[in-house]
Amino acid sequence: MFFSNNIKFLRKRRGRTQDDAASALGMKRPTLSGYENNVAQPNMEALIAFSQYFGIAIDTLVKIDLQSLPESQLSQLERGYDVFITGSRLRVLATTVNSENIDNIELVHEKASAGYARGFADPEYIKVLPAFQLPFLPRDRKFRTFQISGDSMLPIPHGSFVTCEYVQNWNTIRSGMPYIIVTLDDGIMFKLVENMIPAEGKLRMISLNALYEPYTIEIGQVREVWRFVNYISSEIPEGNTLKDPVMSTLEQIKQDVKGIQAKLNL
């Protein structure tokens, strides 16, 4: 039972005094102090009041040690992504943190892709992945970097390192945006995604490279979803060396007009 420690932690995290919190909760300060020091047990009405005040489910307040969570997961709870409240399926993310309890960005190298599809939920597997920090990314969100392979997402080249933000609630997937989708059968896929979950329970996977046909996958095959943030590549994208046929025609017409004007000026 973590209730007493959790409510004290959340109150201090919000910068509220016991008097402030007790007033908002509609109780006396000694009553709140008793709950925080675990010398009194709240009834159901009090539990509901704490849940509404912090915006966190009773189950979470009672069963989960919130102080042990990294900042990214705490922020998700505070933004309303509590699985007990939203009703979404509980997805436990294996992660690593630095000495300041800030989430690392773990790197899933191309050679580790197949292993990641099996070990993504294993803390021991995640612990051995290379980890780093990017100071320009928010600390209250969870990021991971994946090295992609193939040419289906050109002009993002093969071997690029794609950094993404963890998506807890899959209903928030935005159609037409790029995501890393992790499945058990097909491993790690980087695609534009069309969210067909509400109507069909599927995701439509679309490549930037028009040579690849779109296809759908059942949502039951999906294990993790990561939203694209940025990518790093050692390659410079190729310029547009091949002109569009229409542009080539316009260019030819322009040259013909110049030629006619030159003759008229003779």
Write up this protein.
The protein has two domains: 3-68, lambda repressor-like DNA-binding domains (434 Repressor (Amino-terminal Domain), Orthogonal Bundle); 69-260, Umud Fragment, subunit A (Ribbon), CATH 2.10.109.10. It is 35% helix and 20% strand. The chain has eleven helices and nine strands. It has helices at residues 3-13, 18-25, 29-36, 44-54, 58-63, 71-78, 83-86, 113-119, 123-127, 197-200, 245-264, and strands at 105-108, 131-132, 143-147, 161-166, 177-183, 187-196, 202-206, 215-218, 222-232. The radius of gyration is 26 Å and the shape is elongated. The N and C termini lie far apart (97 Å). The model has no long low-confidence stretch (mean pLDDT 86).
For this entry, give a set of tags.
11 helices, alpha+beta, 434 Repressor (Amino-terminal Domain), Umud Fragment, subunit A, 9 strands, nine-stranded mixed β-sheet, 266 residues
SSE inventory with pairings:
Elements (H helix, E strand, L loop, with lengths): L2 H11 L4 H8 L3 H8 L7 H11 L3 H6 L7 H8 L4 H4 L18 E4 L4 H7 L3 H5 L3 E2 L10 E5 L13 E6 L10 E7 L3 E10 H4 L1 E5 L8 E4 L3 E11 L12 H20 L2
Parallel strand pairs: 1-3
Antiparallel strand pairs: 1-2, 3-4, 4-9, 5-6, 5-9, 6-7, 7-8
Helix pairs in contact: 2-3
